[in-house]
Amino acid sequence: MSPSSPRPFRPWGTLGVGAAAAAACAVCCAGPLLAVLGGLGVTSAVGASWIPALAIPAIAAGRGVLVVRRRRRRASCRAQAAPADLGMPTLGPPGKASGSQTTC
What we know:
Low-confidence stretches: none
Helix content: 55-70%
Shape: rod-shaped
Number of strands: 0
Strand content: under 5%
């Protein structure tokens, strides 16, 4: 600078101090930021490989539910072969008809 300048020469002005702070921040925070981003990348890679693998047990569980529901539905609608007592009414006073007994 020239000797006639009213302000003395300062090598670190406002812009220089801001640049030094930004550089220090970048050096200090680069490691943790890269670790977080790398962790997210690894997590994404693991998720991308495990999601298809988890689909197999999910499909098996869904098929199991369908099989159990079908079996229960078939068992509930199935008629059992057995003689049916229709409870036919008898003629005459109770206890007098031949071979029939009624309980009240």
